[in-house]
Design goal:
Structural class: alpha+beta
Oligomer: single chain
Order of helices and strands: HHEEEEHEEEEHHHHEHEEEEH
Number of domains: 2
Radius of gyration: 19 Å
CATH architecture of the largest domain: Roll
Length: 278
């Protein structure tokens, strides 16, 4: 799975559109960033008038073609059918520059006996990236805005701009409160953070949802860094200490938009035997 995911930075660096497109399954979804309108291939595309990968081609033409994009990887976590990359992207776009902290989640499936990416979710913050771009070259931003409209149309640009709305600092504080309550094993404080109809907590690779009391029984100590608010999610890099063993991982904290309470928490930690084999 990691070998499949590694095809992306190679194709981007080589500006090889076909190699990049070949990574994806027939039905594929890209959320980049999370919170923006998703790009979905394999369904009817009113722009091209057919079913196919035209939507992903437009994504490539808009956000990858002609741009210099460097993937600076801090950690990779492979668990279940997912790969989470903890990284930063160094961007040079139309004379603009930015370094964007990010968590990328790739969900993979077998299609015709080959592993393909079915969903790519990019967690990064819209306003910090935009400020870096504008501060480095305002005229470049104006020119790039024209390219966005040409490739995506006004409705597509508005869909991309939806990423400007996120749970923001309120969501990050809720994650900090979750970690503090978890480390102190304060069940009532944890329960206060969740929506009454919440889905619960899940460790990726284990399909069973975990109740808050069961999560408390794990007796873990969590440390967070690099919190990113994107759409109704906050992603973060994590360290988990349990039974004298420390693992690096990540968490995705998903909120109910209406109540601004936690709906689902997903943890990404590789199994211990996989960590030892590394």
């Amino acid at each position: 799975m990691l070998a499949v995911v590694e095809q992306s930075p190679r194709a981007v660096a080589a500006q090889d559109r076909q190699a990049w497109l070949s990574m994806f399954s027939q039905l594929a979804v890209i959320e980049d960033p999370v919170g923006s309108a998703p790009h979905i291939s394999g369904i009817f595309d009113p722009v091209s008038g057919r079913r196919g990968d035209d939507v992903l081609r437009r994504f490539y033409n808009t956000f990858i073609e002609g741009n210099r994009i460097e993937f600076v990887i801090a950690n990779d976590i492979v668990v279940g059918n997912k790969v989470l990359r903890d990284l930063a992207l160094k961007l040079e776009v139309n004379g603009m520059q930015a370094t964007v902290p990010m968590h990328l989640v790739y969900e993979l499936v077998f299609e015709q006996k080959e592993l393909k990416v079915q969903r790519l979710s990019a967690h990064w913050e819209f306003f910090p990236m935009s400020r870096q771009m504008m501060n480095s070259n305002l005229w470049g931003m104006l020119a790039y805005s024209k390219k966005l409209i040409q490739q995506l149309g006004f409705s597509g640009v508005m869909g991309f701009m939806r990423a400007a709305r996120s749970v923001g600092e309120q969501g990050k504080q809720a994650v900090a409160d979750f970690i503090a309550a978890s480390n102190a094993n304060q069940l009532s404080a944890l329960e206060d953070l969740f929506d009454p109809q919440c889905s619960g907590i899940v460790f990726e690779g284990n399909s069973a949802l975990m109740s808050l009391p069961d999560f408390g029984l794990l007796d873990t100590q969590l440390t967070t860094s690099k919190l990113i608010a994107a759409g109704n999610r906050v992603s973060c890099s994590l360290q988990m200490e349990r039974d004298g063993r420390v693992q690096a991982g990540a968490g995705l904290f998903e909120f109910n938009w209406k109540t601004r309470k936690l709906d689902k928490v997903r943890f990404f930690f590789e199994p211990v035997d996989a960590m030892q084999s590394k």
